[in-house]
Amino acid sequence: TSPPVRGSASRTAAGLLGSLRTKRLVYEWTAGSEELTERAESLMLPPPDVLAPGKVTRRFAGKVSPLGEGSKKPPQALIVGVKKGGTRALLEFLRVHPDIRAVGAEPHFFDRNYHRGLDWYRELMPKTLEGQITMEKTPSYFVTREAPARISAMSRDTKLIVVVRDPVTRAISDYTQTLSKKPDIPSFESLTFKNRTTGLIDTSWSAIQIGIYAKHLDNWLQYFPMDQILFVSGERLISDPAGELGRVQDFLGLKRIITDKHFYFNQTKGFPCLKKAEGSSKPHCLGKTKGRTHPNIHPEVVQRLRDFYRPFNMKFYQMTGHNFGWDD
Ligand SMILES: Nc1ncnc2c1ncn2[C@@H]1O[C@H](COP(=O)(O)OS(=O)(=O)O)[C@@H](OP(=O)(O)O)[C@H]1O
């Protein structure tokens, strides 16, 4: 059930207290997280209200009035993965659609915050009007064993989107992110192998583990039918953002409003960017934590990883009915 609509005119002391409590929760939940930096820097739009209370109205531009109409609902669609697949780009692009309302930061509800309960989760959501879709993205859901059952318990009809990317470049991207936070970690090569001489790969290293998509997908298929899951190519999201966004809008049952007219290729950034970000009239690229330069990895190591992933990729192509071209 939805909470009562709280307009500014009817805001009581209790209501205000409630909203302050929510803000504190939102703050606790985002404080210090990379997603927060990522979002603040990449969006130039305010993340949760608490960070920029004066700018709240801008987030509602053209969607929900500042009077606070609409109600908070649990998401009907989720971007569940994969980490470093291009999930932020997809969510930021989708937000341009007037029928999509999304949380900026990653709630991590179905993995680390599940104990907080569904009411906590729903409180994080933006208000939506009839016909609008609530969304969030948390890339770690895809590899969380409990996530499919938990999401299915919220609603069996939840639509799931997975942005997938060549598991080898994904692993290097993942490592690059860790390296940016902890410059003293061992080399990619030494983390990849259990034993460098035998070439035995350390599949327990999360950077490697996450890319075994067929295995993770298998777990989701215990709870969701294939037609409720959409796979977005992380590579195509860069080479043809409008094409991938077309597929996503169809999947969500939305009118194709986001088209090639919304994008331009930014030569400096080396990525497609939005001509106008949601709620703004200015061009907008993702921030510095998106599109990092990867370290050079020894070609032999890359080849060994390609060989390692090939059978899993083949299985994944078979399961999804789509060849993502990572092994061509
Ligand atoms: N338009 C656009 N602009 C910038 N970056 C883009 C874009 N589209 C996709 N990408 C790729 O997104 C990669 C980061 O993926 P995620 O957002 O899923 O990362 S995270 O899991 O949320 O940390 C990021 O990975 P790296 O290049 O390794 O940094 C990008 O390659």
From TrEMBL:
Intrachain disulfide bonds: 273-285
Active-site feature positions: 84 (for sulfotransferase activity)
Binding-site residues, 3'-phosphoadenylyl sulfate: 84-88, 165, 173, 290-294
One Pfam family recorded for the sequence: Sulfotransfer_1
GO cellular component: Golgi membrane
Molecular function as annotated in GO: [heparan sulfate]-glucosamine 3-sulfotransferase activity
EC number: 2.8.2.-
Keyword check for Transferase: yes
Keywords: Disulfide bond, Glycoprotein, Golgi apparatus, Membrane, Signal, Signal-anchor, Transferase, Transmembrane, Transmembrane helix
UniProt subcellular location: Endomembrane system; Golgi apparatus membrane
Sulfotransferase domain boundaries: 74-310
Membrane-spanning parts: none
Membrane topology: Single-pass type II membrane protein
Similarity-based family: Belongs to the sulfotransferase 1 family.
Alphabetical list of PANTHER family matching this protein: HEPARAN SULFATE GLUCOSAMINE 3-O-SULFOTRANSFERASE 3B1 (PTHR10605:SF7), HEPARAN SULFATE SULFOTRANSFERASE (PTHR10605)
Protein name: Sulfotransferase
Species whose genome carries this gene: Parambassis ranga (Indian glassy fish)
Lineage: Eukaryota, Metazoa, Chordata, Craniata, Vertebrata
